From TrEMBL:
InterPro entries: ARM-like, ARM-type_fold, ELMO_ARM, ELMO_domain-containing. This is ELMO armadillo-like helical domain-containing protein. It comes from Xenotaenia resolanae. Residues 68-221 form the ELMO armadillo-like helical domain.
Length: 259
């Protein structure tokens, strides 16, 4: 292997980033250096060939879990490229799903602030959640993105609350797809936990009016599939938030003249 070829590759293994730290006997894997890989995928995503774009975005969704690659790709404004793909919404469902997944993986590293996202981007993601015709894989990752937005700041909470209706989230709890049910419950809990008292009061009033408990009991607890750990956690969170919401009423002194 030539010196030029070696310089464009990286060695990954249990020893960490410093090759001198790698112990004898470790199994090593030769891969493209993160910078080279980031360059190639950045170009591939902009290709005029739909197949190349799809393959590049699919690979991006996989390699973006690595923080070193993520730093290289983001330093080239690769995340901005993904945001533009979503804002334009010209790609097919498969390409869009890979785009959203890659974007979520990049954002998970905390390198870029969620608050830098445009109102157009937020509206597009909310549109994927609100539409009944959206591909299930797209809906799942879109719900995940919105949850992270809500947990990031009050400003994003207000934007997401305005764009995604409680009624639509309740509808997502009634589908057969457990992953969508779980992501919808996660977003619902994020909204309830982040809301200030007035907003929370309003949301609980709506959820009680729509009899949320009935849908949870029928479509989740009585489902033919067992309740997964993640969903069980969110059901516990719902119980906690509900009881905390009722605490003030519980501590109100008894008034024999008030029915």
């Amino acid at each position: 292997m030539s010196e030029a070829q070696i310089s464009s590759m990286s060695v990954s293994g249990p020893g960490g980033q410093n090759r001198l730290d790698i112990k004898n006997g470790c199994i090593l894997r030769l891969t493209k250096a993160p910078g080279r890989s980031a360059d190639d995928l950045y170009k591939g995503i902009q290709s005029s060939d739909g197949g190349v774009r799809c393959d590049s975005l699919k690979e991006l969704a996989s390699v973006s879990r690595d923080v070193t690659f993520a730093q290289e790709f983001i330093s080239r404004d690769g995340h901005v490229l993904l945001v533009k793909i979503v804002e334009d919404s010209k790609e097919n469902n498969q390409i869009m799903t890979h785009t959203l997944t890659g974007f979520m993986e990049l954002m998970d590293h905390g390198i870029v602030s969620w608050e830098n996202l445009s109102a157009v981007f937020i509206k597009k993601i909310a549109g994927f959640v609100n539409s009944k015709l959206t591909d299930e894989s797209m809906q799942q990752v879109s719900l995940d993105i919105l949850e992270n937005m809500v947990l990031s700041s009050r400003k994003l909470f207000l934007q997401v609350k305005q764009e995604v209706t409680m009624e639509r989230l309740i509808a997502h709890l009634q589908v057969a797809n457990q992953q969508i049910q779980t992501k919808a419950m996660a977003l619902l809990m994020a909204l309830l936990q982040t809301a200030e008292d007035a907003d929370r009061q309003e949301m609980f009033a709506f959820l009680n009016k729509k009899n949320l408990r009935q849908y949870i009991y029928k479509n989740i607890i009585l489902s033919s599939s067992p309740v997964q750990d993640e969903m069980a956690h969110y059901l516990y969170v719902l119980q906690s938030v509900t009881l905390n919401h009722l605490e003030a009423r519980m501590r109100t002194p008894l008034d024999c003249y008030n029915q």
